[in-house]
Write a structure and sequence with these properties.
The protein has two domains: 177 residues, Rossmann fold, CATH 3.40.50.720; 85 residues, N-(1-d-carboxylethyl)-l-norvaline Dehydrogenase, domain 2 (Orthogonal Bundle). It is α/β, with parallel strands linked by helices and 284 residues long. Helix 1 crosses helix 2, helix 9 crosses helix 10 and helix 10 packs across helix 11. The mean pLDDT is 95. It has an eight-stranded mixed sheet with strand order 3-2-1-4-5-6-7-8, sandwiched between helices.
Length: 284
């Protein structure tokens, strides 16, 4: 079975991708320079696997899946992997810097994938000498349960790499949706961003509470989780970065008009990881 190297794998999205790949039988290298963060993420993955196992949703034992995951602090180890997936914070310069490094480490015949949610693949591929092997593989949360992955073709991505990425998604038990034009936010995040824009502005204007929006989207539209509960889970800073990225990319209409998300980040209200976001997790 092939191996997968997940850059930034100890982050929220990264650890979900690590888990999905390990469950599918891949050997996975979870990469992050912070060893403590890797250990914390491994504990989160173990908790998630045990929860799935308790509900008979895991085909193998938790330990069998965990044994396929190996911590890796150095980016240079990516050269030996078959799949490299970048999952760092939604900041273009950071991602471009990583792709420039990966391009010199990973043999040119191997694909370089990004899990970016808003940044066009072609802009990241510009940082490499081999833009034809750069492709978007965009996962959705909760990764362990969601059956969707967007596969995004950059301007210079070859059809062979595009097809390989779709096959990779299928190997994870997911259904790939092919995105043929490389636009900011791709398909589903553009639809999602429009929802978040309205939800955030309605709350910021004092028209409705975050709790009632979450309740309404679940009770009225069948969502499994409301947008604000989801923001707290992923990190309010993650949502703020995505919104600001859309503005930078000229898609202001898809970002909230209010400064609520940025204000919450400045206040340290980052969601569950900080104990408080749209909800207060310190309450007993």
């Amino acid at each position: 079975m092939e191996s997968v190297f997940v850059v930034g794998g100890a982050g929220y999205m990264g650890r979900g991708i690590v888990q999905a790949c390990a469950q599918a039988g891949y050997t996975v290298l979870i990469n992050d320079p912070d060893e403590g963060l890797i250990q914390k993420s491994m504990a989160e993955i173990e908790w998630s696997l045990k929860k799935l196992e308790s509900k008979n949703l895991l085909k193998e034992s938790t330990q069998t899946v965990l044994d396929r995951i190996r911590p890796e602090k150095q980016l240079t180890a990516a050269g030996s992997a078959d799949w490299i997936i970048e999952t760092v914070t939604e900041k273009e310069e950071l991602k471009r810097s990583i792709f420039k490094q990966l391009d010199s480490i990973v043999p040119p015949e191997k694909p370089l994938a990004t899990n970016t949610s808003t940044i066009p693949i072609s802009r990241l591929a510009e940082a490499t000498m081999h833009p034809e092997r750069v492709v978007g593989i965009h996962f959705f949360n909760p990764i362990a349960l969601m059956g969707l992955i967007e596969i995004i073709k950059g301007e210079k991505t070859t059809t062979a790499i595009f097809d390989r990425a779709a096959d990779f998604a299928i190997s994870l038990g997911k259904r790939p949706v092919r995105v043929y034009k490389d636009i900011p936010g791709f398909v589903f995040n553009r639809i999602w961003a429009a929802t978040i824009r309205e939800a955030v502005d309605l709350v910021a204007d004092g028209i409705v509470t975050a709790e009632d929006v979450d309740f309404g989207m679940c009770a009225g539209f069948g969502w499994k989780c409301g947008p604000f509960a989801m923001a707290d889970e992923a990190g309010v800073d993650t949502y703020a970065n995505a919104a600001n990225s859309l503005k930078i990319l000229g898609e202001e209409g898809l970002a909230p008009r209010s400064s609520l998300l940025d204000d919450m980040v400045k206040q340290g209200r980052l969601g569950k990881k900080a104990g408080r976001g749209f909800y207060d997790y310190n309450r007993k």
